[in-house]
Write a structure and sequence with these properties.
Blueprint (H helix, E strand, L loop, with lengths): L1 E2 L2 E5 L4 E13 L6 E13 L5 E12 L1 H4 L14 E12 L5 E13 L9 E13 L4 E14 L3 E15 L4 E15 L7 E16 L3 E14 L3 E15 L4 E13 L5 E13 L4 E13 L5 E13 L4
Antiparallel strand pairs: 1-3, 2-3, 3-4, 4-5, 5-6, 6-7, 7-8, 8-9, 9-10, 10-11, 11-12, 12-13, 13-14, 14-15, 15-16, 16-17, 17-18
């Protein structure tokens, strides 16, 4: 059972505030336990002119490890704990002219696993600044720099510095491609070196290819970069993903999602594969029925793997606005 309230408030002619929340009660048999999960997100946006826009976010998430797997591979090592995340971010975009944008961002995130003796509380801070220039109606290029710091109770402090070139290309009316490529200097934990991280340059990059038509949306993504870890401080991760939404009719939508993640830089390499398929049918203006199947496979100690298949049905009621 879940409840999802939402508040949209136009504070002034240039400022808007959005607050959304969700609370969910889950009950399991066979001694797994009962859990209360949920999230609260607040977004404030301010755009007083075409030259400057500001955006701030605050968030709190309490989730089960199986829900956090596509966002963090740490949950592979702790399947019966709860993951709590607190985050704050601020973005500023400045456009000195019609084709140039200077963007910057600063953020902080704190992650903890109550009751876990393996995963530590981790704090991470990052700052980024970039420059983008529109060369034509279809092409934009730029450069982006970022510094991220990860701190753990027993892991010490680790720093990752990244410099990337960026490009965005509108291929036609529906297809869009985004590419980021550059170099990263990060100290990775080495289990054969007493846990000390050796900082050296590494390739980092990501790319997406998306189709955004009216009835069908498809997005393919790939990335190689460092991620914050509650086990090792920083960890090198490869990710592949695909998302598809197909509106079959006025009432029905089919969704397909696939994710693969693999990480190194810790006591053992780990990988995760997740595939989901769901169909949602709108019964009326306020009721909708959704059914789906998820397949999950993750690595285990000793190169063993464990898999699971989950079927779920959800009835949603949308209240009055």
């Amino acid at each position: 059972m879940a409840v999802r309230p939402q508040l949209d408030w136009q504070v002034g002619h240039a400022t808007s505030l959005e607050i959304a929340g969700a609370a969910r009660v889950r009950q399991y048999q066979r001694r797994y336990g009962d859990f209360v999960t949920g999230r609260v997100d607040a977004n404030i946006r301010h755009r007083d002119s075409e030259y400057l826009s500001l955006h701030g976010t605050l968030g709190y998430v309490r989730e089960l490890p199986t829900d956090a797997l596509t966002g963090s591979l740490d949950a592979v090592f702790e399947t019966r704990s709860v993951r709590e995340t607190q985050s704050a971010r601020f973005f500023a975009d400045w456009s000195p002219d019609a084709v140039t944008t200077v963007n910057s961002g600063i953020g902080a995130i704190r992650t903890r696993y109550p009751g876990s003796s393996l995963l530590q509380t981790t704090k991470a801070y990052d700052f980024s600044i970039g420059l983008a220039k529109r060369l034509s109606a279809r092409t934009t290029v730029g450069i982006q720099g970022q510094v991220a710091v990860s701190q753990g109770d027993e892991l010490g402090s680790r720093t990752a510095k990244t410099l990337q070139l960026t490009a965005t290309r509108r291929l036609d009316e529906t297809w869009r491609a985004d590419i980021r490529a550059g170099v990263e200097w990060a100290g990775m934990a080495d289990p054969f070196d007493g846990g000390r991280g050796r900082e050296r340059p590494r390739f980092t990059g990501s790319g997406t290819l998306c189709n955004e038509s009216v009835r069908f949306m498809l997005c393919l993504a790939a990335a190689l970069r460092s991620e914050v870890s509650a086990l090792t401080g920083l960890r090198r991760e490869w990710t592949l993903g695909a998302d598809a939404d197909w509106r079959l009719s006025e009432y029905g939508t089919l969704t397909l999602t696939g994710d693969y993640r693999k990480a190194s830089g810790g006591p053992m390499p780990i990988d995760l594969f997740r595939l989901s398929a769901a169909y949602e049918h709108r019964l009326s203006q306020r009721f909708s029925l959704k059914g789906g199947v998820d397949y999950l496979r993750r690595s285990q100690v000793g190169d063993d793997r464990i898999g699971a298949t989950i079927a779920h049905v959800t009835l949603t009621f949308r209240g009055f606005r």
